[in-house]
Design goal:
The protein is of the alpha+beta class and about 130 residues long. It has helices at about 1-10, 15-20, 40-55, 120-130; strands at about 25-30, 35-40, 60-65, 70-80, 90-105, 110-115.
Length: about 130
């Protein structure tokens, strides 16, 4: 649980090097926005995308359950939407996501990280925020 909270803190602080330190070099990251999977490069790409859209992107653990070497987490994700020219719109969005992270025995490095959320619901929020 501490590792997941520390990852959230590092994501909120935009400390990508610290985030990557919690992941095994051969980790698999499944991007909940695209369904694509890859390694640490995919995780960096996901964070870059989130930071570009939401400069204050922040995950928070809302609930969690540990089963062996895997943790299931419900996250509350928030961020203030950037406008087309990079200026903030002032529109703060909130959405939920679930994730399953599997840890290497012993090192507790994350070896598999899978995020899932209702992309259509987030797209609807984005559309409404852009029209407001």
């Amino acid at each position: 649980m501490d590792t997941i909270r520390n990852v959230c803190s590092a994501v909120t602080a935009h400390d990508v090097d610290r985030v990557l330190g919690y992941f095994d070099d051969g980790c698999v990251f499944v991007d909940g926005t695209t369904g694509e999977q890859g390694g640490k490069d995919s995780l960096i790409g996901f964070l870059d995308q989130m930071y570009a859209m939401f400069p204050d992107y922040s995950p928070r653990v809302a609930a969690a359950h540990v089963d062996g070497d895997t943790i299931g987490v419900v996250y509350e994700l928030t961020g203030t939407l950037n406008g087309p020219a990079g200026a903030t719109t002032g529109k703060r969005l909130r959405w939920m996501a679930t994730a399953f992270s599997t840890f290497a025995p012993g090192s507790l490095a994350i070896i598999r990280d899978v995020y899932c959320f209702d992309a259509a619901a987030l797209e609807q929020q984005l559309l409404e925020a852009q029209q407001a």
